[in-house]
Amino acid sequence: MNGKILLVPLILGLFAAVPEQELKSLEQARSEAIRTGDLATLGRIYADDFQGVTTTGVPVDKEKLMSVFRSVDPRVTYANEDIRVRVIGQVALVSGLVTGRAEGEVVSAFRYLHVYIQREGRWRLSTGQSTNVSQR
Questions:
Q1: Measured between alpha carbons, how far is 83 from 73 in angstroms, rounded to an integer?
Q2: How far is residue 46's CA from residue 71's CA, in Å, rounded to a whole number?
Q3: In angstroms, rounded to a whole number, what is the distance separating the alpha carbons of residues 30 and 22?
C-alpha cells in the first residue's frame, strides 16, 4: 500500500512538469525560427492578436514583429538562456535572457517576459515585453 501512495505524487509531478518543458521547447523553437528566418513557424507560435513592447519601448503587433524578423542580421547569433516558466491554468509566464553576439563580441542583451495562452490545445505567444540589460 505504501508503494502505491508514494507513486501518486511522482506521477502527478511528471504531469506538472510537462507544460513547463513544452514551453521551454517552444521558446527554443522560436529562437531557432528567428535565426533561420522561418516565418511560418513564427506565425504558428505567435497569436494573431499578439501585442508587445520592444527593448526600445516601441509597441508592436504580430505584423510589425514579423517584419522585424525578416530583417534579422544573419551575422549575429543569439543565445536564449535562463528560461523560466510559471504556468497558471491556461496562462504561462515565460522569461529569459537573450544575448546576441557578432564575431565573438556581445552586441545586444535583453531580458524578456512572454505571456502564452493555451488555445485549442496549443500554447500561443500572446504578449511580450523586452528590456535591455547592461553588457558587462
A1: 23
A2: 18
A3: 12
pLDDT digits (tens, 9 = 90+) for 42-101: 999 999 999 999 999 999 999 999 999 998 888 888 899 999 999 999 999 999 999 999
pTM: 0.83
Quick one: cell of 123? 500554447
| Residue 124: HSE in the Cβ half-sphere, 13 Å Cα cutoff | 16
Please give the residue range of the domain that contains residue 89: 2-132
> For the domain that residue 37 is a member of, what is the CATH number?
3.10.450.50
Percent of the chain with pLDDT over 70: 86
Count of domains observed in the chain = 1
Neighbours of 132 (CB within 10 A): 13
